[in-house]
Description:
By secondary structure, this protein is of the alpha/beta class. The chain has helices at residues 2-7, 13-47, 50-98, 102-108, 110-117, 119-152, 154-157, 159-201, 203-208, 212-238, 240-264, 270-312, 374-379, 404-410, 425-429, 438-447, 451-456, 474-486, 504-517, 530-533, 553-559, 561-571, and strands spanning 333-340, 351-358, 363-367, 389-394, 397-398, 411-414, 423-424, 464-465, 492-496, 522-526, 538-543, 546-551. It folds into 2 domains: 2-312, ABC transporter type 1, transmembrane domain (ABC transporter transmembrane region fold); 333-571, Rossmann fold (3-Layer(aba) Sandwich).
Amino acid sequence: xxxxxxxxxxxxxxxxxxxxxxxxxxxxxxxxxxxxxxxxxxxxxxxxxxxxxxxxxxxxxxxxxxxxxxxxxxxxxxxxxxxxxxxxxxxxxxxxxxxxxxxxxxxxxxxxxxxxxxxxxxxxxxxxxxxxxxxxxxxxxxxxxxxxxxxxxxxxxxxxxxxxxxxxxxxxxxxxxxxxxxxxxxxxxxxxxxxxxxxxxxxxxxxxxxxxxxxxxxxxxxxxxxxxxxxxxxxxxxxxxxxxxxxxxxxxxxxxxxxxxxxxxxxxxxxxxxxxxxxxxxxxxxxxxxxxxxxxxxxxxxxxxxxxxxxxxxxxxxxxxxxxxxxxxxxxxxxxxxxxxxxxxxxxxxxxxxxxxxxxxxxxxxxxxxxxxxxxxxxxxxxxxxxxxxxxxxxxxxxxxxxxxxxxxxxxxxxxxxxxxxxxxxxxxxxxxxxxxxxxxxxxxxxxxxxxxxxxxxxxxxxxxxxxxxxxxxxxxxxxxxxxxxxxxxxxxxxxxxxxxxxxxxxxxxxxxxxxxxxxxxxxxxxxxxxxxxxxxxxxxxxxxxxxxxxxxxxxxxxxxxxxxxxxxxxxxxxx
Length: 576
Ligand SMILES: Nc1ncnc2c1ncn2[C@@H]1O[C@H](COP(=O)(O)OP(=O)(O)O)[C@@H](O)[C@H]1O
Ligand SMILES: [Mg+2]
């Protein structure tokens, strides 16, 4: 895992190496200073040699200066390398997510993907920025201090054989317990983000239903859960300090007791005992640093695992290995005994045994109750989801045999839940075609009957849309989405209830213009209104994911009960 994370460092690896070199040099430099000091006291002061004192003093100052420069360098390099790694990880993850199919995203949830892209990466990035220094410093300090203490008094140094393993075991016990909790903390962050995200996206609904209290309660629940899990994680982590103190003071007592006896029998000078104690403190201190580094590492590994889950997610819609150059030429569609469900382990199929044929250039209406799987059906055509079994065939070729990019370029689908992006009206429209001429854009807007509305805007096509297109009405947004789809000059145009918020008169106008202007394009219209589909070449009636009937307006009106009922209810009703 560590190796995998480090592999994302790429060109920032050199900064990591520079940082490690600086830290090692700095630590060594610091260890030199006491020796110089000892020289000043033992030689300079003892002999009253002022010249020597100044000379060694200057050396000491130089050492301090060099160590300061190295310290600054190491801080700079570790920060560069940590932040660089963070940026690279985010980039790689973002790129991977762009390749996700709808099913991949369903599996993770958007909010969790956001945490994995931000919080988890930040954890790793900060661990490298702040953890590199103690991670290198501690072992250097420990080894030199251990060597020095053994050199000073090997007999006394034996206490380390007990103290170090005891402390190591204690720290290991703590880490082993805290490890799974860190994963849970990140999971709890996911939940908090999910609630915040849902609430903010739907803030208008929340306000209009006066659901603040309910939403606050919902948030409080996940927030408390996050607090609880975090308290558990960090109070376990905090056990580090007492464990350390326990071992440190026990060691000091042992040394004072044993060393004291040594001094009493004259085997050890008191000064040496005091010096020895300072090494003991250094060894234990470095162990403490190591344990902090290990905690950070544990936390980073929990985050790393979550990031790698994203990186390892198998993208279930991939281009075929051969025949990727095929383009959709005419827009003929055939469904051949198609079964579909969103999750492999789901009990029931959303679509069952769906077969039909749409000749190129035809206009087809799909009608059915909500939940009848109309949206699910059309999403199979541009391969937003894959059929579980059976074949979806476009122009005589299974959709799985097209490069998804080619396929989707030829098929424009206005989804039921569609969004605009922040940016100007024109930028949004150009999503359909980057290099569209002004003429093309105007034409598409005219067909979608949105030109008049844009004309009335203060800045016309340069008007800024809020995030998700909040500053346009539902019907205006739908028409902008249709114009955006038309700009693709698709072979197949799918409108999934795309005019539900547009008044019937305007809708009829849009339909007529599409009919005339996109003569050769295959058109699929999903609607709740009989009036929207009655002129279609064929009408498919879906019922609980199965085809109830296929026919023209006249035949269905003659022999389909559902259609007759729908027609009767809408004939004089408000929906017409
Ligand atoms: N992303 C999804 N994951 C799981 N189930 C879904 C998803 N989208 C829709 N469904 C389910 O599939 C069924 C058909 O939905 P849908 O195709 O949207 O119906 P319609 O468009 O006819 O109203 C519904 O029962 C719905 O709950
Ligand atoms: Mg739908």
